[in-house]
């Protein structure tokens, strides 16, 4: 199905063509018609499936084709759209003068600064021929440029919860005239403790609105939230393993923890690894890995929540431009990064949650392009690996490496492994561990082509 069959207006089709897109993704095919029809929607899809365009394109079309008319606010009082479009506006209904001059018609809430910035960029790309105005607000940087943009008037606002509520409390901004509300990465919002902020935002927007909610997973807490903020929604689901994993070639190395750094350096000697995103469990290890790579003359930077916003944006921009070949990230970036042409994702550490693995590898193999995901697994992490392979419905092919502990080292004494086999604890007391590693070694001898999904 080409984009034309989604009944998008010509300015949007022109923008889509300019980006080189011809066929919509599964989430776009399913979601766009419902959003254009004005329905509330609960979408379940991983990052990397084209989810942003699934709501950005129809929002742009609705705002372009829908007349600007006074709309009742959250308290049933009429708001005003006029001032931002050059028409006089009153200060009634409890609006501060600044808010009356800056009506916002669509609000997109997202958990991280990076994701907010990238969604705003997407609205700029898809809406470049519409004349609609958009901006983004998030914390960690000066609010002055953001306030100036709001006062000039915006139709579409992308925001993180904290900065949004700060600006509302300062009477810089009103969201009482919102026509379309989008809650993106809802499960991540829940994980990061934003649930109370979201409830505060919902209390400030009109009851009569269109609401779109997207989440990578749908636990009971997310469904409960959906029941509170959505009205008679349609549900659109894209299976997690279908869009992201099918375009990503996955492989697994069993490696001793002490050898992971050397293995990473060895893999980065491959010239095909042009842009690599490396994930660690902790911020501390992200810094350590980046420093070790830099010491080995490999251009690398770390990005995580302890970095200042300025440093995070600089590291991300260097990575996008190719100045930095390797970006080492903690899991805060698993859903927040949108960088084209990432050739490899490397799981330096296995994530605790199996869904996070899918989010991570979704950073490569995007828009139908091929990508590679390489995972390091130590013998202490077999339970995490089990959970990931269960989610995928198949085993990840095992590759071998030539790295060994130095003769006489503690690692060699503890593991006793030989070339061609993954490291394991020869004296492990737990029978379950022994059975696991025996099973994995047996599957390796038979070749990855004969492995069966669980």
Detailed description of the structure:
The chain is an alpha/beta fold. The protein has 2 domains: 3-237, Rossmann fold, CATH 3.40.50.300; 245-450, P-loop containing nucleotide triphosphate hydrolases (Rossmann fold, 3-Layer(aba) Sandwich). It has 17 helices and 14 strands. The protein has helices at 10-18, 26-36, 51-65, 97-100, 113-126, 144-152, 161-169, 186-191, 195-204, 220-229, 260-267, 283-295, 309-321, 354-361, 382-392, 410-415, 431-445, and strands at residues 41-44, 106-109, 134-137, 156-159, 180-183, 210-215, 234-237, 248-254, 276-279, 300-303, 326-329, 344-347, 371-377, 398-399. The protein has a 7-stranded parallel β-sheet, with helices on both faces. α2 runs parallel beside α3 (51-65), α3 packs across α5 (113-126) and α14 crosses α15 (382-392). The radius of gyration is 24 Å and the shape is globular. Residues 71-100, 408-433 and 447-454 have low confidence and may be disordered.
Give me the secondary-structure topology:
Blueprint lengths: L9 H9 L7 H11 L4 E4 L6 H15 L31 H4 L5 E4 L3 H14 L7 E4 L6 H9 L3 E4 L1 H9 L10 E4 L2 H6 L3 H10 L5 E6 L4 H10 L4 E4 L10 E7 L5 H8 L8 E4 L3 H13 L4 E4 L5 H13 L4 E4 L14 E4 L6 H8 L9 E7 L4 H11 L5 E2 L10 H6 L15 H15 L9
Parallel strand pairs: 1-6, 1-7, 2-4, 2-5, 3-4, 5-6, 8-13, 8-14, 9-11, 9-12, 10-11, 12-13
Helix pairs in contact: 2-3, 3-5, 14-15
